[in-house]
Amino acid sequence: MAPTPATLFRTAQDHTQLLDEVDSWTNDADLKDILNAGYEKGGVVTRCDRTARGFKPTEFPVFAPRALAGIGLNKLHQTTLDRTFAIAMVRQMKGEKRERLRPCKVRSTASQLKKEIQKWVKANKEQVVAVYERGDFQYLERFSDRTVDIAEPLAAIVEVTYSGHAELELTRALLVGAIATTRKEQQSA
Q1: pLDDT at residue 140 is higher than 90
Q2: Does pTM surpass 0.85?
């Protein structure tokens, strides 16, 4: 089921939003406003809330990490695509067999993984924020400004996670490669 704009802007703060079946959304204009404002820290949308005296304009913080899943990229406006890492999904061909995702088989593992991620975030949040605010990600400079804007949070997580580890340079290179692929942007030398 497609999310409603009210669901998105009222639940964005302090959450990660996972949105499925983007290709079936019908409320594109309202969703576009939320997605476009929500890619950057401090992003808000203004909506009217009913009060005892009528309606009052209220600002809602909509900055949130989001993963959108759907078939094809043509559903998203170019402005929204410019604020994303896109991984193309393709419809399964008739007769093609893939392993089915069985929630009952992955629920326990997913639950444990979620707990581990939450624990890591709690322990490292301040350090990630400090690294992000310092903004010293020279390996991202080969990309366009918009790409750097949306890649810096991921780079901050990489820097904190691999600080002091031999794998830091390799992980930076993997991040740069993933960014180049999902942004369909050539790295300048």
Answers
A1: yes
A2: no
